[in-house]
Amino acid sequence: MKSNPDLADRESVEARASGRLTARGKKVFVKSYGCQMNVYDAARMADVLAPEGFVETNDIGAADLVVLNTCHIREKASDKVFSELGKLKLMKDERQSEGRDLQIAVAGCVAQAEGAEILRRQRAVDIVVGPQSYHRLPELVRQATRGPVIDTEFPAEDKFDHLVAPTEDKVRQRGVSAFLTVQEGCDKFCSFCVVPYTRGAEVSRDAAKIVLEAEALARAGVREITLLGQNVNGYHGRGENDEDWSLAQLLERLARIEGLARLRYTTSHPNDMGEDLIRAHGESPSLMPFLHLPVQSGSDRILNTMNRKHSAEDYLRLVERIRAARPDIALSSDFIVGFPGETDEDFEATLALIHNVGFASTFHFKYSPRAGTPGADLKDQVPEEVKTERLVRLGELVEAQRRAFNLSVVGRNIDVLFEKPGKKPGQVSGKTPYLQTVQIEAPDSLIGEVATVEIVECGANTLFGRIARGEASNRRGEEAF
Ligand code: 5AD
Ligand code: SF4
């Protein structure tokens, strides 16, 4: 059909008058660093720019706007941003020599922490926008055509009320497993951590809004939702009955949404692990038996200087209670080695805790002093080579545990949610309830289905198997044992 030029013209005049559509046909490339919340935020940034005419691209070379959604948690993560910006500057110079432009935005926690300093270090940057202001991106993109702009406010309005829902097609493109932020920010102030400064105070979203977002995801074919929050198990949002709901109450409500087969949540703090949440792990079929519960250290002395407000023994008792409710639960944790003052004895206590618990997976890091956090000012910073040595030792121990955990499922029948095509043609890839990756030879039509798989082999990072006798189901993983 031929388009009507008059109509098109009128539309664009109206759009310009209303402040929309400054960027019809332009492409945005969003690159995310760091945590899963940044992955969620990156998608929402693309969503908020879509009505402005920006189409998301995976090809940075084709982009008119590049957004780096940054992470400030450790020095290495922050440094990456500036090296990436160096490359983007060259790209921008090349474009400009051809008479075209490239807009560069720095979003996320580095933007929040460094603000104007980013513009001083890299003049090619057009926009600096913090994690609480990215709903204003359309306006910032417009303003930036007149010169660099910074927005690192913690605005009074709730950014979630200003975000744009993705189309069903967009949700489908993003896959059958989705993230959904339910809580943001942190009031815990662990002495090593920048999050309370970059993400702000702890805020929980209203349950009704979360339910609406989850229902829309499910309608578009999402089968698994991972609820996100820096202290997600401390969730205390307004419930549908106007009373405050705990995370367990929210999970119970979400479990009733048709089509959702699996629920997960991350990241949790040991001190917010409520009795009802522990019970939910034993009772809720859709709540997956995998829990990321960072402990950081096994030494009480170090936990104390870290301001964690719990002991190693508290953590071990908590794990016992969780395992009593859900015996097959797989646990994962974060560890920091070389926190100021950490002696060999303290480090041995961390290894002892790991031996004691047995983790299915972990993230482990060398302590990275972050300006503005109390940890950075502590005496007794641990030498780099000691940190490296401890990281290697801890890594060997947790790797052995991870391997043992993966081997323990070989020969079993486990429910797998298939998410995407596998590495090789004819393969599909999915996840067990314990978050292990599984590949099998099967048609793509299995994507979005939960099917019982007989695990026959354990590779370095992947399990291999075949469909067990009986067909696709929505059963919980536990029943397959
Ligand atoms: N240095 C090293 N690791 C850190 N983490 C947070 N801050 C630091 C830091 N300054 C780790 C913690 C946290 C995870 C997200 O990152 O283990 O749980
Ligand atoms: Fe950082 Fe501690 Fe808050 Fe986690 S609980 S975000 S480690 S301050």
Outline of the structure:
With 481 residues, the protein is α/β, with parallel strands linked by helices. 35% of the residues lie in helices and 20% in strands.
What are its keywords?
single chain; 481 residues; alpha/beta; Rossmann fold; OB fold (Dihydrolipoamide Acetyltransferase, E2P); six-stranded parallel sheet; 15 helices; globular; disordered N terminus; disordered C terminus; binds 5'-deoxyadenosine; binds iron/sulfur cluster
How does this model look, in words?
With 481 residues, this protein is an alpha/beta fold. The model is unreliable at 1-22 and 472-481 (pLDDT under 50). The chain has 3 domains: 5-151, Rossmann fold (3-Layer(aba) Sandwich), CATH 3.40.50; 159-401, tm_1862 like domain (pyruvate-formate lyase- activating enzyme, Alpha-Beta Horseshoe); 413-474, OB fold (Dihydrolipoamide Acetyltransferase, E2P), CATH 2.40.50. Helix 10 (247-254) runs parallel beside helix 11, helix 11 (275-283) packs parallel to helix 13 (312-325) and helix 14 (344-357) packs parallel to helix 15 (384-407). The chain has a 6-stranded parallel sheet, sandwiched between helices. A 5-stranded mixed barrel has the order 15-16-17-19-18. Strands 7-10-11 form a 3-stranded parallel sheet, sandwiched between helices. It is globular. Helices cover 35% and strands 20% of the residues.
